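Shipment paperwork, digital attachment
Item: protein structure file
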Amino acid sequence: MVVDLIGGCRAFVSVSEAGSFTAGAAIARIPQPVASRRIAALERHFGERLFDRTTRRALLTPFGQDMLPSAKRLVALADAMEHDAQRAKLRPMRLAVPETCTTRELAELDAAARTLDVFLEFRRAGPRERPELVRTQEVRAALTAVPAEEGGWKVPLGVAGGTRPRASSFYLETLRVGRSGRPPRRVWIQPEDDVPHIRDRLFRVRDSVGLRPAQVAVADSLTAAAAAVFGSADLLVCSTAQAAELGLDWLPLGEIRLARGFEITAGLGEDAQRLRARLWSDIARCLGAEETT
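Attachment content:
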């Protein structure tokens, strides 16, 4: 027979402090018959009486007096463990996210998570840094960059600039340098897209349509890339949401279809599954993504 030592000791301590089974059961917040059964089970387990039942009051036997300090320590330890468990459940899960996520988008994701008793703490990082943060256990999980066809979330990309477009798509070949003497227009790749499945594909198109190497280049930061676009006829590779945030006009590329792909990488598989199952749509909104599955 398995004995509930914690429940029995809690009843034992409460009855000893109250001096009666009825009052002790009330302190332990259990019915009096339950308190009596738990204490009786403890007595059978130990093979000795804890209380002298020949009087109206619940008086401890010598054996009960010897066992009471240990029972109090066990109850106190159980209470501390319950408290620690509640604190652990409220400890935030550190999540590495793209630097492209805005404060509002992250706040909305955090708010949605809290309604599900999931508490998040965000760390913005670049695409190469995010999986490394998981590996070094600086974060518990990360939204990592993957090819769009492999990701749970997909963000279509195009180019955006300050001039209102007249066509439905933009072709990189139109940037070929002519004889006008004007400075060549450039296409800037922001750091989030400095990954092989986006950057290298753009470079191949650049080379195939005869653009100069410097006409499609990786910027040091999104801010630097946007500044270059604001001050010239240059273009920024970005999502529709980023274009709207920056006040730029967006077009898809004509020669190639580009998209960011994102997946969850986590130190524990259960963390990744928890985020996928409970916050799939909210993460999609934060990334500005189309859900692919």
